[in-house]
Amino acid sequence: MEDRPYAMLIGGALVAGAEAFEILNPATEQPVALAPDCTAAELDAAVAAARTAFPSWAATAIDERRAILHAIADRLEANAAMLARILTSEQGKPHPDAEREIRGAAANMRLTATLDLPVNVVEDTSARTIETRHVPIGVVAGIAPWNFPIALGIMKVAPALLAGNTVVLKPSPFTPLATLKLGEIVRDIVPAGVLNVISGSDRLGPWLTGHRGIDKISFTGSTQTGRRVMESASHSLKRVTLELGGNDAAIVLPDIDVAALAEQLFWIAFRNAGQVCVAAKRFYIHEDIYDDLAKALAEYAGTVKVGNGAEQGTQIGPVNNRPQYQRVLDLLADAKAKGYRFLVGGDASEAPGYFVPVSILDNPPEDARIVQEEQFGPVVPLMKYRDVDDVVARVNATEYGLGNTIWSNDIDRAMEIANRLESGMVWINEAQIVHPLASFGGHKQSGLGSEGGVEGLLAYTVTKTVVVRKPTSVSA
Ligand code: NAD
User: 277 an active-site residue?
Assistant: First the structure.
């Protein structure tokens, strides 16, 4: 294990921190490195630095802020391989996926930089002007989960900075290392205090959301934690954006080409070991093609290499952390105890590391826990349906509403279904396309507000309406 190579970025300085905690590699359960365990005093320093930097950052021309976003993107790209190695070691994902995450974050940064803050001129007459501007809120706390630490962190940093806010970014305690390294490599290009990166154990999240110096919280994580964040934000009426959990469905119509689509349908559920907020977490397959598709998915699953993400050829890594691993194993145990049939998988491996075998269930009942709950792991149930009304009702019968997919060659038919789904995103014949210029957010308990696009940018602003009564000209 390396000796303390990771430091927080606070007010433009790298801060090793008074305390530290250990980060484990999920593929080996061995320590990777120590990360700073931010103390209350260090948090105060980070928030104070962000507050101090705010007025001058907010006053910079937006083009100057755009240039900084591009400079951060340059650094992400130049360091993609190094960051990806760190990400694989703490997160578990295969190295090529980790590198794609870094490069995708850079691309997100650049596209976000093309956005503008609109000014709405309501009246412009000889007597008066009325315009509504969008001005920055202040200090933003960005809180990210462990499934895509860099991608989801950047999804917050890019629009927050572009809008003129300063940021305190906190990655998950399971995956702080790549984000800390990101802070280090942008230190000389971002003005001191504009972006601060802190890491800490479980105590840090509530400290941050409860901190009086924070004006807005942008949170990505579970619905359960999202509720706590909102409660904590209420004390000083902090603005919140919440990107939360999901139980997304893939609805497969009978007209698809099973052989051509099976591989793609497999990956919409199993990419990143199923730890994707918008992964397909339950499949509804029309009964006419159910057997064929189930067989094709099971056969494809047999060809996929599960292993250490640092090894060449690995396609699926371990689950990220022990609590999540235990949760997924618990869902498997429940399915076994209830006597549900597995097409593949189902048994936990004995080897070290949080490895869960690719597991596919054969038509469990609708009220099964594996159908009703967000599994966030490489386990997916396939269910049969016959008519569209029934499948729409089953897909919508959840507290979640993140992103569903529909698979059909009949686009009109698919669109009719899409119009009836209660979710923030619907993808037809595609999945997990998260375009930085399109709004991304959940309905119901999958979130509050959205990220991406101009809507996402405006979530980092408050409105300011300026009314000017023009002096009347006095005639001589
Ligand atoms: P989590 O809610 O456990 O943790 C997320 C973050 O919140 C971490 O940084 C954690 O340290 C912090 N945190 C924990 N308790 C806190 C508290 N009381 N106050 C403030 N912060 C606190 O989520 P996770 O397990 O890291 O991530 C998995 C979940 O995230 C899944 O439910 C997944 O669907 C969801 N997710 C949603 C999206 C989306 O965009 N909608 C994207 C990715 C993941």
Answer: yes
